[in-house]
Amino acid sequence: MPDEPIQRPDLDAAHEVIERLEWADGRTEDTPHKRWRDVSRRTALTGGAAGVAAFILNACGGGKKSSSTGTTTAAAQGTPAAGVFGSQPKMRFTFVNHVTTNPFFVPTKYGAEDACKLLGCSYQWTGSDSANVNAMVNAFNSAMTAGASGIAIALVDLKAFNGPTDKALAAKTPVVGYNADAAGNNRLAYIGQDLFVSGQEMGKRIVQLVPSGDVALFIATPGALNIQPRIDGAIDSIKKSGKPIKYHTIATGAAVPKELSTIDAYWQGHQNTKGLFAVDGGSTASVAQVMKKYNLRNKNVKAGGYDLDPKTQALLADGQIDFTIDQQPYLQGFLPVLELYMIKASGTLTGPADVNTGLKFLDKETIVPYNSTKSRYEGTSSSAGVTKS
Q1: I need a labelling partner for 154 at 20 to 30 A (CA). Which of 162, 163, 189, 380 fits?
Q2: pTM of the predicted model, to two decimals?
Q3: CA separation (Å) from 277 to 74, 171, 274?
């Protein structure tokens, strides 16, 4: 008969400390110095340093006193959040995204990461890097199989996620939408911009800038519910204006290099165009680069779009385009984690809430504080807080 394993609460505590520290260090570059530090850390904490481990856990809000023995043990969910929401089992949430490597979502991931640090949970970032809906459905189903505590999904398709969402909800796994919403999906909440309304407002701005003539409307992936409502809204406002404006819609593709080459080629073949406008971040940055490349401001061409790609920010400040629209991507990561956590912690008594993350037009003047600072909120820094650049 095999020997029974020896129970070592001190090692359990030490391993929990190690997991937390290594998780927090996960974004740092892997160097010989870091590897040596990790080895040293593991040696110190597993070499009988139970008191040190317990001390660190308590300092992080991660220890609790046993009423019967007075000893310190690792809490099931050792974070300061336990003092607010009560002790919770460890939660792991999954974000299913349509363009997982797109720079737009850097602050979204920071938002999810920061919420997890506050609440003592973790998250996985998965989906497709090319807006492949089947890959997203597979990622959703894999999250369910892996026992995700909750799922945040960019609902870029009108029907594909309805079945998986219903199955998850039936299994008591909460689902919220972020960045894109789909009418008819039974998700518990949507956190993101009111996309059609934002497109309408963009269309009104286009009419002001280009009262007549041809305008190009660029869209990365036509039909995708994170951007199609925007272009629909813009067209709605252009039509309602009654102005002699002829709009042309052009698909640019999900990959940023393809967006740039498509917009560049379009301009070369349509140099009578009076305005270049885009409804996604990658296409907007590409529009700004084409505007500068061909000196189109001096030809009275107008331009604008969405989001805060670093190139967009710099070229907006340089006066190459007229505007961009901020939709606060950081909140689209932070708030889903918060809502999913609260749904679970409250036993479904509270948590889900639709949140419109905003419509903020930025121009050459109002972009200044974005360019003069660096922060996780805009994805320009991995450090906490806001620093002068």
Answers
A1: 380
A2: 0.76
A3: 55, 43, 10
